Amino acid sequence: NCLGALDGTHIPVHVLDVDKVRYWNRKGELTTNVLACCSHDGLFTYILPGWEGSTADSRILRDAISRTNGLKVPQSQYYLCDAGYTNGEGFLALYWGQRYHLTEFRGRSNRRTKEVFFNMKHSHARNVNLWYSKKKILRTTTWYPPKTLCQIISACCLLHNHIRKTTMIDHL
């Protein structure tokens, strides 16, 4: 009953000095926070770009759920999500206090608890960042205003879906 993965990702943004405080993320970078949902076959099923980098992932999810045409999770189905979210109806988060980023599993001993094993499988299933890391336009700061950048992000997601549906290899 898993619909796919839900995650937030930060995309560099250029904003006016008066807006910078809201766009600083926890790593000290100016970003826009984007909520993205992907299906098992790597297609975007929902995207909500445009939030300030300082906004918590859970706040963005609450907004997405409350919108009239927002994110809908059918009864008895769920999205996998990371530690920025909590377990709740429609959302299955990983175990707190355990390794969960893919990079944390490389070169580690094979001693794994059931919680760590779950988090490892969970992390593989929800890796939205594979898409983000391949899109150069989204990795570098642009001089477009945030509203235009949101349109670019949406266009990249649509292009990604089109390419995934029409070719076997995503060349972007």
TrEMBL record:
* Keywords noted in UniProt: Hydrolase, Metal-binding, Nuclease, Nucleus
Q: Name one Pfam family in it.
A: DDE_Tnp_4
- On whether Hydrolase is a keyword of this UniProt record, the answer is yes
GO cellular component terms, semicolon-separated: nucleus
Q: Which InterPro entries match?
A: HARBI1-like, HARBI1_dom
Q: Where is the signal peptide?
A: none
Q: Which GO terms describe its molecular function?
A: hydrolase activity; metal ion binding; nuclease activity
Cofactor(s) annotated in UniProt: a divalent metal cation
Q: What is its main location?
A: nucleus
Q: Where's the DDE Tnp4 domain?
A: 6-161
Instruction: State the compartments where it is located.
Output: Nucleus
PANTHER family in the record: NUCLEASE, PTHR22930
Q: In which family does this protein belong, per the annotation?
A: Belongs to the HARBI1 family.
The protein in question is named DDE_4 domain-containing protein
Q: Which organism is it from?
A: Cephalotus follicularis (Albany pitcher plant)
